[in-house]
Every structure is written in C-alpha cells, then in structure tokens.
Amino acid sequence: MNRYILPLSVLGTAVGGAVLLKDFVAGGACPSKATIPGKTVIVTGANTGIGKQTALELAKRGGNIILACRDLEKCEAAAKDIRGETLNHRVSARHLDLASLTSVREFAAKINEEEEHLHVLINNAAVMRCPHWTTEDGFEMQLGVNYLGHFLLTNLLLDKLKASAPSRIINLSSLAHVAGHIDFDDLNWEKRKYDTKAAYCQSKLALVLFSMELSRRLQGTGVTVNALHPGVARTELGRHTGMHSSAFSSFTLGPIFWLLVKSPQLAAQPSTYLAVAEELESVSGKYFDGLREKAPAPKAEDEEVAQRLWAESARLVGLELSSGASGRGQPLPK
Known about the structure:
The protein is of the alpha/beta class. The protein has helices spanning about 1-25, 50-60, 70-85, 100-115, 140-155, 160-165, 195-215, 245-260, 265, 270-275, 305-315; strands at about 40-45, 65-70, 90-95, 120-125, 165-170, 225-230, 285-290, 290-295. About 45% of the residues lie in helices and about 10% in strands.
C-alpha cells in the first residue's frame, strides 16, 4: 500500500498545480464585491455564452437586467433560467437583431420610451469567422453585427445613458484586434476576395477605435466607455472556425485548449468587473485584457483613423454627424 502513496501524492500535486496554472492563465473571479440594486443593464447576445453568464453575474448583484438577443425564444429561456437561479425577477428578454438597422432602431426606441434609466450597456454580441454573409442592410456580416449594429445602438441610447450618469459602456473586442486593418476603400469586402479571419479582426479593431473616439466625445458627461478582451472561451462563437472538427486537432491541441480556454463563467468576470467596480467609475477610453488594463495595438490608438471611422460609420448607419458625442442619433432623411 505504501508504494502507492508517493505516486498518488505526486499525481495530486501535478493535478492541483495544473488547475492553479489554468486559473492563473485564464484569469480569476471579479475582484469587486459591489452590488447594483436599482441599476438597469443591457447585455446584447445574452442568451448563451459570455453574454448569458454576464447577465447572470449582474442579476446576482441585484440589477435590472435586459437581455437583448436575435432569437427571442432562446432569450426568454435564458432570462427564465437566470430568474430561477438568482431569484431576481427583474430579468427580461427583448428582441434585438444587430444585423438589421431597423431592428436596432426599434429596440432603442422602446428602451428610450419604456426605461426610466440605463446605467450599463454591454455590447457583447458577436459572430466570428462566418461565411461571406451580408446583413439586411448589405454590410459584411461580422462588421455589421460586431461593430456597426453596436455603433448605432450605442448612439441611439446615449441620451438615456447621459441622463442616468454615472453610467458605463463596455465593448467586447478581442485580442484579434492586433491583426486588424481598417480598409476604408472596401470595409464591406465588396472588391476583395473574402477573408473571414481578416474580416473578424477588422470588426474587433473597429470596436476598440470606436471606444477610444466615443470616450473622447463623452468627456465630462459622466458616461465612460472601455473596450475589453474577455479571453478565449468555450462558447458557440467559434462554431464556424472548424477548431474542433477533427479528432487529430482535438487530441493534439486539447491540453493547450484546456489550459488557455476559459469557461463562459470565467470569461464573464471581466465584463462584470467593468460593469460594477467602484474603482473604475471614472476610468474611460481604456482597453482591458481580462481584468487588467493594457495598452491596445498602436493602430487602435490612432485618433485620425478613429475619427474617420466614426464619420464613415455614421454615414453607413444613417446618423447625423456631430463634432461632439453623437447622442441625438437621429437617422438622416431618406
């Protein structure tokens, strides 16, 4: 019997060490214990993955949580799950299709009409490396959903956010923004051969540039905006990548994925932190890698590119241009 003690002890130490290493690599729990009773929060893409877990975390902290999703049936099911788990009945589902500017405008109009306040907007929804699809309005799908839909939504809700200040906007970007390039001559991939990875990276770079420019426009309003890389998580987002499609890749890369890939619950901690932490109330125009503030790629801090992207985005989605924050968000006449 004694001869098994040492091997078992070594095995136990190795397993424990591996778990600790995974926690260190993946990042830990939200360090803030702040609660948000009476605060209204919108989380886009909240029926599954990081979005659902973020909504769950914030519901636990007492917020009035609005799940905004394309599939209303799944959204309502997620809201029911969260209400049951948290016993917070102020969790509701609303329809929002970010691939439709009409849907974005309808959603924003209802929020502005029906909600007295809006304290936190978490732009979480995304598509990743999908085929060459286009949105209802003819935009390349990843640019349209990940960026342009959120650009319009945020601008349409700015007056409500400013009236509810202090308030926060959190844009979920990705480490992939470092490989992104904003091609102003062909934002929607109408001239070039489609590269789904490059399109995804462009959309995530656009989100960081948007965050930086919006932060500059919102100075003095009490509304903060930050961009965030939540980490790589085991969610439905990667369904188009083919990452786990072969037994070989699963076998050879499995241990690496286990170490580096977060659970949705762990990946939701940074969003939760940016939404509730009292010490971040006045922090704006920053990029967070997990729970830590970090400098984004230099191209994401180019003010000239950010201003040009804002102007082009406003034109594409039909917003009035403004030298200040485009909080009015009125569509241009047809």
